[in-house]
Amino acid sequence: MAVRVGVEGLVDGVELRGVVLVQPYFSGVEPIGDEVAGKAAGFTYPTSTGGSDDPLMNPAKDPNLGRLGCGRVLVCVAEKDGLKDRGLYYSEVLLENSEWEGRVEVMETKGEDHIFHLLHPTCDNALDMMSCICTFLDQ
């Protein structure tokens, strides 16, 4: 959505100042880090013609990534999440392989797995992540 904002803009002076990605679910044909390349793209996005490398599933393949419509991004990943490396890769691609000139922050929660904050919303790590998100939004 933030890329679409950068390409198409918003109405009436509305501005997107930042994006928070919490354990993002991205994919790609080539595995990143310890990731096991899956076939979930066909299930999660059945109308795609690009499969796991469709730009909606793999932002690294989006020719408009550098037009991201905000100046700040927070990427939250969890240490034991099988999608962690893909989330970290997104932040690297955004900074190093696109013309986007914004700022990326990464928060990695140690000892946790995917969606831990939904399963245990009052645990210390979930509260720490929420605090990080609130601080990001307040800037």
TrEMBL record:
Q: Which domain of life is it from?
A: Eukaryota
Task: List the SUPFAM superfamilies.
Answer: alpha/beta-Hydrolases
- What InterPro entries does the record tag this protein with? AB_hydrolase_3, AB_hydrolase_fold, Carboxylest/Gibb_receptor
According to the record, the signal peptide region is: none
Q: Name one GO molecular function term.
A: hydrolase activity
The UniProt record lists the keyword Lipid biosynthesis: no
| This protein's UniProt keywords | Hydrolase
Show where the Alpha/beta hydrolase fold-3 domain sits: 50-117
Pfam families hit by this protein = Abhydrolase_3
Q: What family is it from?
A: Belongs to the 'GDXG' lipolytic enzyme family.
Name under which the protein is recorded: Alpha/beta hydrolase fold
Organism (species): Trema orientale (Charcoal tree)
Species lineage, top-down?
Answer: Eukaryota, Viridiplantae, Streptophyta, Embryophyta, Tracheophyta
